[in-house]
């Protein structure tokens, strides 16, 4: 039996794609193995959102090939920058060709090579109609759509995922029910932009959440990233859906810059003021909201004043977590053609924001010490103890508890990135 190892990088969406490929491979008679060392083929499900990530993908593929492994490359890199993929690979599949993974290995075994990197215009693939590998665990990723409605001048991911294609609500609900029946207790709704879900099929995220929360049982829902320009269009309805106990009080709302001119150059079709409006409304009606946001520093044209506007926005809004990224030009994007800022300046700004985000997160998390909170236990923690997620999706390490258990705990310690607590029996 030919043995295959699938390793995946990047977003939760890629994780779901990997499980689809694993199920297809099993049905085709291939064996799955946990490590590349014991595999005949390694499927590398790539991410290409940033230049450093792309370089890591290239190096990883080369390492595997040099060690004698046969490699199939899938994921966003195959669309964003296919020219850097080592020509020795045994196959290249686009994000909407993952259903052909077994075919790719079959052809490689016959000394051929399948290259199938169709764009969204040429090939439509309803991934909720494909099988998934059911692993043991607490959290299960359910893709709700693919692609987005934005045209950001720095983003290359849209070259891979295309424009928005929302999956039918009844299919999403079916996958959620199937996951719950198999013992999963956390449903992660995943998309390039959950905020525009359903806009192409006459519905929206709030209506989908209402359908999912009406399912009986004890479980929690984590909503993935949503862009402000879409969320603001149905804000009241969205907040009402978030008030259901089954929805984590977790909002991932990327602002990217605190300067409206930089946002305009980025192609982000909202203003700083609209971002603030969404945050303020959520905080007013959702107690304990865990706000996550993203910032890109060093974007072409970001003046010192523009950067200071970002700093001031962060100081005022005080997100629980900030994902700070140094801008890196991506092939084929508009912003890659513009004059770039000096690398030393980008690093300097990144370090300043990094220190600020840790300080704010530490101060916010200190307010949890001594509090009693609800926790969904995930299992053995990487930091020791038992890992769980609080009602608002903060990472917490406990002194006990079984995976999938909803329990109450008292927070005993807080750092910038996670909490510690004791289970209240």
From TrEMBL:
Residues 366-425 form the TRAM domain. The keyword Metal-binding applies. InterPro entries: Elp3/MiaA/NifB-like_rSAM, Methylthiotransferase, Methylthiotransferase_CS, Methylthiotransferase_N, Methylthiotransferase_N_sf, MiaB-like_arc_euk, rSAM, rSAM_horseshoe. GO terms for molecular function: 4 iron, 4 sulfur cluster binding; metal ion binding; tRNA (N(6)-L-threonylcarbamoyladenosine(37)-C(2))-methylthiotransferase activity. Residues 2-110 form the MTTase N-terminal domain. It is an enzyme of class 2 (transferase). Pfam families: Radical_SAM (PF04055), TRAM (PF01938), UPF0004 (PF00919). Residues 134-363 form the Radical SAM core domain. PROSITE patterns: MTTASE_N, MTTASE_RADICAL, RADICAL_SAM, TRAM. Its EC number is 2.8.4.5. The keyword Nucleotide-binding does not apply. Keywords: 4Fe-4S, Iron, Iron-sulfur, Metal-binding, S-adenosyl-L-methionine, Transferase, tRNA processing. Its cofactor is [4Fe-4S] cluster. It catalyses: N(6)-L-threonylcarbamoyladenosine(37) in tRNA + (sulfur carrier)-SH + AH2 + 2 S-adenosyl-L-methionine = 2-methylsulfanyl-N(6)-L-threonylcarbamoyladenosine(37) in tRNA + (sulfur carrier)-H + 5'-deoxyadenosine + L-methionine + A + S-adenosyl-L-homocysteine + 2 H(+). Binds 1 or 2 [4Fe-4S] cluster. One cluster is coordinated with 3 cysteines and an exchangeable S-adenosyl-L-methionine. SUPFAM superfamilies: Radical SAM enzymes. Catalyzes the methylthiolation of N6-threonylcarbamoyladenosine (t(6)A), leading to the formation of 2-methylthio-N6-threonylcarbamoyladenosine (ms(2)t(6)A) at position 37 in tRNAs that read codons beginning with adenine. Belongs to the methylthiotransferase family. CDKAL1 subfamily. This is tRNA-t(6)A37 methylthiotransferase.
């Amino acid at each position: 039996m030919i043995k295959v190892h699938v390793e995946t990088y990047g977003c939760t969406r890629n994780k779901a794609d990997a499980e689809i490929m694993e199920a297809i491979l099993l049905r085709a008679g291939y064996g799955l193995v946990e490590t590349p060392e014991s595999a005949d083929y390694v499927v590398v499900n790539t991410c290409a959102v940033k230049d450093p990530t792309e370089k890591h993908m290239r190096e990883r593929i080369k390492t595997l090939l040099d060690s004698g492994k046969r490699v199939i490359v899938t994921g966003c890199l195959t669309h964003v920058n296919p020219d850097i993929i080592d020509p020795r690979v045994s196959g290249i599949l686009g994000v909407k060709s993952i259903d052909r993974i077994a075919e790719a290995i079959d052809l490689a075994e016959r000394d051929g090579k399948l290259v199938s990197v169709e764009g969204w215009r040429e090939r439509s693939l309803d991934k909720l109609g494909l099988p998934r590998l059911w692993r043991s665990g607490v959290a299960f990723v359910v893709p709700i759509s693919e692609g987005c409605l934005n045209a950001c001048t720095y983003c290359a991911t849209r070259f891979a995922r295309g424009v928005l294609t929302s999956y039918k609500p009844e299919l999403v609900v079916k996958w959620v029910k199937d996951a719950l029946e198999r013992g999963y207790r956390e449903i992660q709704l995943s998309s390039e932009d959950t905020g525009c879900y359903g806009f192409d099929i006459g519905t929206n995220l709030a209506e989908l959440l209402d359908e999912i929360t009406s399912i009986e049982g004890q479980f929690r829902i984590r909503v993935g990233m949503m862009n402000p320009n879409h969320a603001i269009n149905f804000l009241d309805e969205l907040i009402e859906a978030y008030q259901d106990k089954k929805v984590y009080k977790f909002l991932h709302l990327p602002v990217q810059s605190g300067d409206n001119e930089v946002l305009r150059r980025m192609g982000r079709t909202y203003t700083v003021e609209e971002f603030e409006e969404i945050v303020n409304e959520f905080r007013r009606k959702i107690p304990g909201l865990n706000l996550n946001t993203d910032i890109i520093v060093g974007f072409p044209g970001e003046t010192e004043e523009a950067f200071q506007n970002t700093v001031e926005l962060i100081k005022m809004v005080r997100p629980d977590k900030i994902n700070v990224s140094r801008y890196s030009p991506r092939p084929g994007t508009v912003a890659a053609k513009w004059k770039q800022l000096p690398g030393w300046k980008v690093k300097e700004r990144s370090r300043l924001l990094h220190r600020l985000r840790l300080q704010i997160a530490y101060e916010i998390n200190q307010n949890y010490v001594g509090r009693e909170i609800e926790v969904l236990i995930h299992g053995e923690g990487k930091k020791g103890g038992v890992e769980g997620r609080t009602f608002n999706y903060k990472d917490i390490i406990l002194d006990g508890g079984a995976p999938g258990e909803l329990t109450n705990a008292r927070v005993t310690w807080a750092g910038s990135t996670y909490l510690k607590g004791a289970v209240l029996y």
